[in-house]
Amino acid sequence: MTEQGEPNAAQRIAVEVAYARPDVQVVLPVEVAAGATVQDALQQSGIAERFPEIDLGSAKVGIFGKLARMDTALRARDRVELYRPLIADPKEVRRQRAAQGKPTRKGGASSADSSA
């Protein structure tokens, strides 16, 4: 802390909070205190106010694609991700595509994307 009681830069870390919908994707830079948790970063980012459909009490979260708990401590440059619920069962989608004779897509790319 500085003499004025403010945390110095060494006691703060930069992280990102990411959220995506089909129509919009956001990555918000957030500076949190060292030792802050996923929940701290989400609250400081204001993401729940920006996207009212997010329920921080039940939302699945992760850090760089790995599920995490709200009380997980963050490290500098972590990306906290909020996950939306699946709208379709992946197994059922594959079954339907197979029944229609369509090839299975990898990584969400359409067959038009792969013919570069």
UniProtKB/TrEMBL annotation:
Gene3D superfamilies: RnfH-like. It comes from the Bacteria. InterPro entries: Mopterin_synth/thiamin_S_b (IPR016155), RnfH (IPR005346), RnfH_sf (IPR037021). SUPFAM superfamilies: MoaD/ThiS. Pfam families: Ub-RnfH. Residues 93-116 are annotated as: Disordered. Signal peptide: none annotated. Belongs to the UPF0125 (RnfH) family. HAMAP family: UPF0125_RnfH. NCBIfam families: PRK01777.1. This is UPF0125 protein THITH_13160.
